[in-house]
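Course assignment 3, question 2. Fill in each field.
Student: A.L.
Task: Predict the tertiary structure for the chain below.
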Amino acid sequence: MGASGSRPHAGAEEYMVNNAHERTVDSDVIIAPHHGADDGSSLKFIQAVSPELVVFPAGGQYGHPRKSTVLRYKEAGVDESKMFRTDLCDSPQKKEWAGHTVEGQDDSGGDNDIDITLTKDGVIDVAYVSLDEHGY
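Answer field:
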């Protein structure tokens, strides 16, 4: 599983991509850099990581994850059904990806916990911890 800091530096992503032959950055699951903001997750970085699943630790007033970021993950081959967010009941802003949000609900961002489990057989399972009949 790959995780990055809240405010990525473009040079750090570039360095990891350029040195992937020495230290792999390939990962099945990635915690999206900078909550899925426009300045995290360059296409080259996503392609080098080649994740199957993406978790956006998002919510609040900043409008993350951004549509443009989600499009980069999709372009790199990640299916939208394999993208998770920690703010299911957020009210999406104009530039924000609205995928998996629950309309008509408004709760504090970042409160939808996600479990990432690696089974003894090597299978990765990513799921929301607890969702009620309304999906939150």
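Instructor remarks: The beta strands are 2-3, 29-31, 53-56, 83-85, 114-118, 124-128. The chain has one domain: 2-128.
Grade: pending
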